[in-house]
Amino acid sequence: MSDPWDGPAGQATRRRDRRVPGQRASEPDAARSEAPRADEDRPQGGRAAARAAARSRGGRRARRARPAPRGKRVLKTVAISLSTLIVVTAGAGWWFYEHLNGNIHSLSLDGKGGTEKADAFGRTPINILVMGSDGRTSAADCKLGGGCSHTGVQTGSNADVEMVVHISADRSNATVMSIPRDTMTQVPACKNTENGQSTAGYFGQINSALQYGPACQVATVHQLTGIPIDHFVKLDFSGVVKMSDAVGGVPVCVSDNVYDTYSHLKLSKGTHTLKGVAALEFVRSRHGFGDGSDLGRTISQHIFLSSMIRKFKSAGTLTDPGAVYDLADAATKALTVDDGLGTVKKLIALASDVNKVPTKRMTFTTMQTAADPSDDNRVVVGPGAKTLFATIANDQSLTTGSGGKSAAASAAKKATTPSVPAAQIAVTVENGTAVTGRASAIATALTDQGFGSGTTTANAPSPAATTTLTYGDGQKGAAQTVAKALGLSGSHLKQGTGTGLTLVIGGDWTSGTTFPGGSTGPADTKTAVSNAHASTADQAKACAKVSSYRTVTLNGVPMTPSEAYAEARNKPDSDS
Fold it and tell me: Can you give the pLDDT at residue 407?
């Protein structure tokens, strides 16, 4: 009779059970040999006898060579266990990967941010716009952000935090530039692909562009700065809470007792580890630090992010599987990203690129601003900002290899000193493209860089396929200054018979204020960081400077954040 496992499922087992009632088909062979049944001693004939004799011989062999089968059984058990472990681990890993991918919400940028240029070695920088949304688009965000008691859950949001994160092509350095939310600028024509809301463009506060989708916010920042932006990351209130919890809290220092009655941040002087809501209160506080405006808030946010980066890089954080899981799960749930970052694999690659940059070579800055002539509560781009934009667009480091301030500033200044000062040069800019406003955009870029107020615009007599800069007799030096400022090569320069400089924008330059593929030369890094509140991520002892102005109100009385702390004795501290 054949072995029961050889036949159709179940049939042979039942047949054998009927013929040998005392045998259990599921009992292991070893167990049967070590505990023989009573009927094995009775004489049997034919096939039954042969089977009994075979079992008896097998049992004797097992007793004589017991160590070998036990070793085989151990090896077999280990092999099965390892196989099971591999299958389970692989299954868990796949589930984990798919789970994280399922958390990610991604949207298309539709090419709104321009394109990065590779360096001489084919390496490409990374520019990411990080946005902190003030949206109360869920019950959780309403609870955290407030303001929903009358409106309920809202649909729109503003980008109250905007940071351009630049990672150099060689991954040796990085620059993070905050743009204050109160900056006034031109918002381009946009359409939100998620809800269909659109605008024909308007002049307004920069953070309002997010109402028309993240791609519109990216396009607005790209237009303002000229920096190509190839990715975005958006974080809401609950996202900040999740991320700070996942990393185990973020250590921060405040220079004095502080109570911001608006964000509800309340901390005593010194260092605190902030998690959850307390972390959100810290990064949202604009009345507690600096001059009580958004400018002071950007500096405290840099302190918070620098500390978080150090925490990420610290020993144990990224080697603890539980911590890594919590962090990855929180990050993928908390972030909205562009399609270029829309998978776990791509986010891991980005994290790896960031991790390559030493903290001493990560520079945090704030875009230089000036008061808006039309509104004291708003700001516009200030002196030095265009140079800061240029360092990022041209992939220039603001630190040296040792982490100190760049020594290239004076050298760059000497190397780029024009033979004719920009202020003495006026240019006639003509639009030879089919794109409305091109001449105006380039003329504005020139005057922003200090070129003469006599710079004018016009339409070219006929469409032009290529861009040319024509100069009169004795004006080659002035033309070279203009070319260097706009990234034009010598092939675009042409001597004419007239006087003055005439720049015709051709079909080879339909967007941006730097000629595609061109180079404007190194910017003056000293000017770039002047009044930009520059700091590096390795400055672990930096404290957020508490405002000395009466920026908060308690019980209807204006007072400083430190005075409010002293008065609010019954209110617990944020980290208590």
Answer: 45
